[in-house]
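Q: What would this chain look like folded?
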Amino acid sequence: MGKVVGGIGLSHVPSVGPVVDRNRTQEPAWKPLFDAYVPVREWLQRLKPHVAIVVYNDHAADFSFDKYPTFALGVAERYAIGDEGFGTRPLPEVPGDFGLSAHVAESLVYEHEFDLTICQEIAVEHGFLVPMNLCFPHAAHGWPVRAIPLQVNVIQHPLPTARRCYRLGQALRAAVASYPAEVRVVVMGTGGMSHQLQGKRFGFMNEKFDQWFLDRLEAEPALRSRSERSAERDEEAGPARDERDDEELPHRGVAHDTAEQADPARHAGDVVRRVLDALQRRRGIEQAGERQPRVDGDGARGRRIGRLVAGRLHLDRAAARGGRLGAGRLRAQLGDAGGEVGGELARILIALLRVLLQRARDTMPREKTSERWSGGWPEICSGDM
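A: My prediction, written as structure tokens:
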């Protein structure tokens, strides 16, 4: 039978990937981080897992904002390395476990009634790869374990509730346990802690909040629902807190499922918590009106950015072939329009234009290619990224 032999909650900071690729792990700035994972890898070597189920979120690399599944499970023999706009990392493709992942899919859908998106192809990105780099370093011949990606939406609202993610973890454990073949599984929940990606609190580490969150996650994971959230807590956690909650909780659901089954009193407590959840949802509806001015302001700022982009950039092939757009000027204009949001959008658009320019170059007739591109790349591709 299948068995969950371990669970890990960890971050997936994207800058870890290039550090691994460039062999910079022993530099002073990075050595403490990688040294901290030495005992983790030693522990995993003692566990001897066959498969790692990685609960992560795709950062709009393989899924897009117009089609973003709540829960997506990879069911394939292998998984390609995704291109996040800056080229594909030099990593071997990740081997899957088709038999186990197909069994998990059927168990979650038929027995536990989770409506999954089943993916026979997923290109995995840093949310998945960084945890693998830290816990299961690859060699020239490939990775030491097979892996199954389980992607959770923490980007496109409405998001799955933390309670739903916790129940997913419980169902995942049951699915692994019912697998008829002998397989040892490690579940990794990967997200962030104090997760401030921009603004005045960028890079701020709130250790007090982190310790509070970890204590609650360990002692009472079933209570880490959205009913506990408040404006004060959201400010402490940072704007990407959902990435932490929704990816860590499936992992905790796996870990605590056995304890809950052994304590029937918890079922009575569940009824009480459902009533409290209903009251909190009602309160949330009443408070929504207070948040509307902020939402309207964000919408107006977004429309201003949209008008600027529509007027300034022509992303069709003809414009891409002949255009010379200054990256610095583009970033400044978007920054003026949308502040920090505009600055981040500028980086994304510059990366997108680079792809479009390359495609335009690839599709032009050979004689025009040499004439048009003899002077090198347009400024947009060599600007201040």
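Residues 265-312 form the longest helix (48 residues).
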